[in-house]
Amino acid sequence: MDVVINPFRLCSGLKVLGYFMIFLVLSIIALSYYAVVILIWAPHLLRGGFNSFFSFFIVILFHYLLILLTWSYMMVVFRDPGSVPDNWQLVSEEDLEEGNPTSISHNLGPQTSASALSDGTEIRPAIRYCSQCQNGKPPRCHHCSICQRCVLKMDHHCIWVVNCVGARNHKFFLLFVFYTFLETLLNTVVLLPSFVNFFEQTKKHSLSPGNLAVTFLAFVLNLAFALSLLCFVIMHTSLLLSNTTSVEVYEKKKAVHWKYDLGRKRNFEQVFGTKKMFWFFPLFSEEDLKNIPALHGLDFPIHSDTVSFSPPFMEFLGVWLTHC
Fold first, then answer.
1. Which one of 1, 28, 68, 90 has the lowest number of neighbouring Cβ atoms within 10 Å?
2. Backbone dihedral angles phi then psi of residue 136, each to the nearest 5 degrees
3. 231 flagged as catalytic
């Protein structure tokens, strides 16, 4: 009997690396806090005058961004990105006989194909089936080799958060990247004078060797992260405004018109919701959760120009109508 080896199962070992990355994130935050707040700016708070006021502003801004960063990070780490409901692909005879389109759209099988209604609402897909999960794959759903499961509207698996980024935590991930960029940028700017004077302070022994090393290391790390995160912010902003995930980039290139592109405003709302007061926080309003199906990862509106009926779907529709 031949033994089939799945090399992708080895990817699950990356979870161990992910826990180390969480420790690394917390270590960098602690290092930056000590360098920026305790070592550099807190001593200026008691000196009075404009210098004291400016130091107070820096410290408050640092803590404000740190709270938002940590909040977003915890949400993306612990929030389930979205799982496919059990037996999502099954079509029962009762559904066919009763002509229940809702049940059918919930349970399309692996042999039919994705399509859309004329009003632009997508019928839940049919063509894709996950042999590993033994379940159907809704639109934009992909199997994660690290998590060993299908993830709704999967963007990518992020080792920094030991979790997949999917439909239900995509916003939290974007906020985490954005606030981390702002925090590291702030740290880089406020540590720059100390970094410039590093060698002078070394000669004068104005700071202990340990504190000098902390200042130097904190500046270099924050500068490196700020530059790399700038690229991530630009990339993910572009993907967000075109309603594309990281794994859909190649698929989008092959399409004449990307069917999920609803315009920048609606694309943004598909991830962040419509309530502006919640945009900058890792939260959703009850109204958005109720009125925007895309936030749950099973239904996605599509551009009306891309509506088409594929032959397999027409076959399935014909069978269904004969039972009505």
1. 1
2. -70, 160
3. no
